[in-house]
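Long-time lurker. I teach an intro course on protein structure, and each term I like to show students one example going from raw sequence to a predicted 3D structure in token notation. This year I'd like something fresh instead of my usual example. Would anyone be willing to generate the tokens for the chain below so I can use it in lecture? Attribution to the forum is fine with me.
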Amino acid sequence: MHRLHNVVVGGAAVALLFTAVSGEAPAEPDAAGPAAVGATGIEFEMHRKPREIVARGTVASATHAESLELALTRRFPEAERTTEFTIGEQADADWQLLTLAAVDLVAETLSATAKFTVNQADIRGVTPEESLFDARLGRLEQVVGSDYALKVTVLRASPRTSPPDACAVMFQSIKGEAVRFRSGTAELRSSSYALLDRYAEFAADCPNAGLKVTGHSDSAGDEAFNLLLSERRALEVVDYLKAAGVAGEQLTHDAAGSSEPIADNGSSWGRSLNRRIEFELFEPGRLQEPDGS
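-- Reply from a regular --
Happy to contribute to a lecture. Here you go:
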């Protein structure tokens, strides 16, 4: 079992511990594209918000779909439910067990995004009770077996956590990755798409939260060019998020040029760290949009 399980304990009021930082690697090649799904194309995904649950994907039969509908009704009795199931010839009894275990697992979260194929899964969210979540996760592990690639990134919050605080925890869970650009340009590398899609999902799950996108550069070359490039990169990220469905009022941007380094500009490694995008939370209507945005 390839399992990555991160749990951060927090109280009812969860503070942001750090700002999400993403940068440009000096010579990173483009990714080949989205991660491959199972060879059969069978997949299942769930998205949970405080009062909404969405489930869609492949089922083995009409009976399997009915079982999922019943499980969703039982586990999310007060939520608005949206389902979309397609019968797949190669879905089998093991797939039925996996999807039903997935429903039970997501039910132990306050909010979550979970995506499954026949050979891998990525589960992210916030849980109010770590022991119950771990019990359901253990059941899922029994169902999928030791060769299944299971990535779980879950943070713990109090059951009394307010929606804004839950969103702060969700925001915290997408830290530590990087937005990459082609050197000297504002052209996004395809390896950045998955991370930006996660920020778009976050914005959809937290419609009352805003994302401030700030572009930074290293100190090499003309500062006027650096400032312009950092703004173009921030705008490129904003445009990507808008195209992914994020509302314009949830987005703002800024450019810092080389004025806020986080590493030594005297080395190539330090400069690569300073060429970055930072994401911050803000409350729409409480932060003035920069001129020209």
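Some talking points for your students: The first strand starts at residue 2 and ends at 6. The chain is about 30% helix and 25% strand.
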